[in-house]
Amino acid sequence: TAAAPGSPAQPATRSPASTACPGFLDHDFKRLRSSETLNLCSFAGRPMLIVNTASHCGFTGQFEGLEALHQKYRARGLVVVGFPSDDFHQEANDEAETAEVCFVNYGVKFPMLAPTPVRGRDANPVFRELARQTREPSWNFNKYLVAADGRVVAQFGSTTGPDSQALANAIEKLL
Questions:
Q1: Which residues are catalytic?
Q2: End-to-end CA distance of the chain
């Protein structure tokens, strides 16, 4: 069941030009298992936690913690966004299976996008910029904490779980 427009699970309507959006976020991405697209500028002026994900990875259980972060911080403005990728050969071959893992197995409500590359020359524009500001993902479930102005304020590798105190401290400091 889709959330009502404007609810925390859906992007807010893009604000007038008064809220600038960094160019690397101003791209349309297909939502996971949907014909709809999402432009990350719909979250202009809000901090984001951007994560590259995979359905068949030892870290896939982090979806549960990412959803908990989404629930805990969404009212304070944080947007969690998942970018499934097969760059490490651990994503499902079928988008329907990816969606089942995210939405059914882990109850993900935060925005999940269709699988896309996150490394190298083929990386999507968001991950090209994240890599430029920090480094490209070395594995699945890298977490990039991005300020409302598009600056990456912290980057956490796969082994830093969503429940880590370091990540919570960085989010609290940003909010």
A1: 57
A2: 29
Q: Is the pTM here over 0.90, yes or no?
A: no
The DSSP string of 84-145 is E--TTS-S-SSHHHHHIIIIIIS---S-BBPP---SSTT--HHHHHHHHHS---SSS--EEE
Amino acid code (one letter) for 82 = G
The neighbour count for residue 39, using CB atoms within 10 Å, is 15
Q: Which amino acid is at 17?
A: A
Share above pLDDT 70 across residues of the chain, in percent, rounded to a whole number: 89
Block means of pLDDT (10 residues each) for the chain, 175 residues, are 40 49 95 96 95 96 97 98 96 92 96 97 97 97 97 97 98 96
Q: What is the spatial distance between Cα 56 and Cα 39, in angstroms, rounded to a whole number?
A: 27
